[in-house]
């Protein structure tokens, strides 16, 4: 190598070093340990939190500063309650934790697969084809630093001892379109069925299910399922009845279903 070639090589190295390193890998599909929490919009966040607190954890949590927002932990998962007096009750969003999550890079990764977020939209909240919202948060998740104890509603132990989320079921208007959307986040679906028409994804140690809406049905988060430690269906049924919780029919003998004060449906199963 002559002097000119050596100098050219050193110049190329210097230019390369001056350039910002390009990202070698995408964050999609997500490197996720699982689905972690759900957010509910309700007319009275505190009162709704008290309903769930009697079942799962009588120690409530709340945001330190207004607006009022309450939380109930359910093992490694939790429920977040926000809203105002005239709010339409619904599950507003659900959250997946992501290993080494970087919001700015995720925006670019989503654009690469055809998902464009609003320019002024908050990072981490992504609408699917029906407007149902998936939130992304960095591992290890958990309650934010702005959250403080919100009072213990009872000295009694909780009726049930949740471990964490098992699955979340969405009702969607176009099953194939929604499946293609969530494949970008969770990879290839793990199972499909025709009666009912469903698609399942594995999300870490949890699952996300999609079910085709029936005629006249609106897309929504249909229900969430929690894994319960030491679950016994007969005992759990009796405890919920003692709390005047409305039970819901189920065609699965391994599950117990109930509705909250707003008609939002939950499933319980053995951990």
Write a compact overview of the structure shown:
With 271 residues, the protein is an alpha+beta fold.
How much is the average pLDDT?
91
- List the strand order in the largest sheet: 6-7-5-1-4-3-2-8
Class by helix and strand content?
Answer: alpha+beta
Please state the overall shape, judged from the principal axes of the Cα atoms. globular
Radius of gyration: 22 Å
Strand runs, count: 16
| CATH level 4 superfamily | 2,3-Dihydroxybiphenyl 1,2-Dioxygenase, domain 1
Q: Order of helices and strands, N to C? A: HEHEEEEHEEEEHEEEEHEEE
| Percent in helix | 10-25%
Overall tally of structural domains:
1
Briefly, what CATH class?
Answer: Alpha Beta
* N-end to C-end Cα span: 68 Å
Folded structure, characterized:
This protein has one domain (34-270): Roll (2,3-Dihydroxybiphenyl 1,2-Dioxygenase, domain 1), CATH 3.10.180. It is 22% helix and 37% strand. The chain has helices spanning 3-18, 45-56, 103-112, 175-186, 233-242; strands at 34-41, 59-63, 70-74, 77-82, 90-98, 125-127, 133-138, 147-152, 162-172, 191-194, 197-203, 206-212, 220-228, 246-248, 256-259, 265-270. The protein has an 8-stranded mixed sheet with strand order 6-7-5-1-4-3-2-8, covered by helices on one side. The protein has an 8-stranded mixed sheet with strand order 10-11-12-9-13-16-15-14, covered by helices on one side. It starts with a helix and ends with a strand.
Write the layout of secondary structure elements.
Elements: H1 3-18, E1 34-41, H2 45-56, E2 59-63, E3 70-74, E4 77-82, E5 90-98, H3 103-112, E6 125-127, E7 133-138, E8 147-152, E9 162-172, H4 175-186, E10 191-194, E11 197-203, E12 206-212, E13 220-228, H5 233-242, E14 246-248, E15 256-259, E16 265-270
Parallel strand pairs: 1-4, 5-7, 9-12, 13-16
Antiparallel strand pairs: 1-5, 2-3, 2-8, 3-4, 6-7, 9-13, 10-11, 11-12, 14-15, 15-16
